[in-house]
Amino acid sequence: MRILVAGVDGYLGWALAQHLTQRGHTVAGADNYLRRDWVAELGSQSATPIRRMTERIEAFRENFGKNLQFFRGDLADHDLVMNIFRHFRPEAIVHLGEMPSAPYSMIDAGHAIFTHKNNLFGTLNILFAMRDVCPESHLVKLGTMGEYGTPDVDIPEGFFTIEYRGRTDTLPFPRQANSWYHQTKVHDSNNVMMACRLWKLRSTDIMQGVVYGTRIDAMGDDERLLTRFDFDQCFGTAINRFCAQAAIGAPLTLYGQGGQKRGFIPLRDSVQCLTIAVENPPKGGEYRVFNQFEHVYNVTELAAKVKKAGDEIGLNVQIRNVENPRQEQEQHYYNPDHKHLLKLGYRPTRDMLGELRIMLKDLTICRGRIEARREALFPDIRWDGSRRPVEYLDEPVTEIEPTVQVPFRALARKQS
Ligand code: USQ
């Protein structure tokens, strides 16, 4: 199948392009490297030393014996998107090319408006290009579990049947986003759903949980194939940040009471699920929703798991509660369905501790790069628009270990 990965230079995109190619698909990618700029804006860098796109493409060819066609440019540019579609004529599009951070979108009006323009314009351009050039193609659109918020009832996969004043209908489940970023995904979902209804396009909207992990098998022992790994307050997700903190001996920052529950999924499972969605397209006009996560945990449970895996290798991990810079529920009910992908053949890894051991091993080797941007680990972006470092809510207990720089080559050894 000819598959366009929008956002191919990102954390998920670079891994997915490899996995799809390994499965025999012909993959093209589009990107404008904005993720690299956003992370630099926050004074941070990827913990893994990622390569320039030219080197990435060379490594791709050498490892998979296939070219990755690469289109550099902004998905918010309508002409560019039309040209990509006319040239590559994708049968499937995996749209990962959006600004993915809740805290980044909450910095100020400029960041909120940029997030809306970037995310909504890109998706609209893809929808119009599908209509005008490839109406049979399938859009796999990355949404987020955060679209639903944390309601006090079970969460279905996109739709639920409701009886109201004696009449019954199947309707979209209410979306209650909690950041400007998550809100862009809600708007996207509405736009994609309408395009499927009006233009008979087909789409799978992926409500993905929080992703964690440093690698997938396709990366093998070639360090040029490694994907990025962010640990800053905006682009690092909770487990990834906890592992980065553990690797340099900094305390894990548990926001507020730590009872916040989310669905989590390892990177290797995320690419497996996206591939399943691509290889099992819906029929024309169908808009379907998959909730994509492996398991629900609260963040205190996660921190405890990272501590267990870290202590096993002598990291002496400390966990500390800090003020929550976000406005979110810290104790709540959370029970989302996730059956569709399992029915289509998703085989969950179900070994979080094993994955954490791999991550901690990788990140211990990269600890010099994390240490060099240590300040970026500590949150100061607040949901009320102010920018003040959070305070610890408990007594200090940790001592910082000295950092040891290990040559990165060692990371390339395949993990067992
Ligand atoms: N948290 C901490 N300590 C930290 C970082 C986060 O306790 O150092 C807490 C947060 O308060 C939150 C939870 O962990 O309650 C998850 O935070 P996160 O930053 O891992 O996840 P989130 O902001 O929700 O966003 C991430 C991705 C986003 C994706 C989303 C899926 O950045 O692109 O859409 O996960 S979901 O969370 O299901 O909406």
From TrEMBL:
Residues 3-291 form the NAD-dependent epimerase/dehydratase domain. Pfam families: Epimerase. InterPro entries: Epimerase_deHydtase (IPR001509), NAD(P)-bd_dom_sf (IPR036291). Belongs to the NAD(P)-dependent epimerase/dehydratase family. This is NAD-dependent epimerase/dehydratase family protein. It comes from Desulfomonile tiedjei.
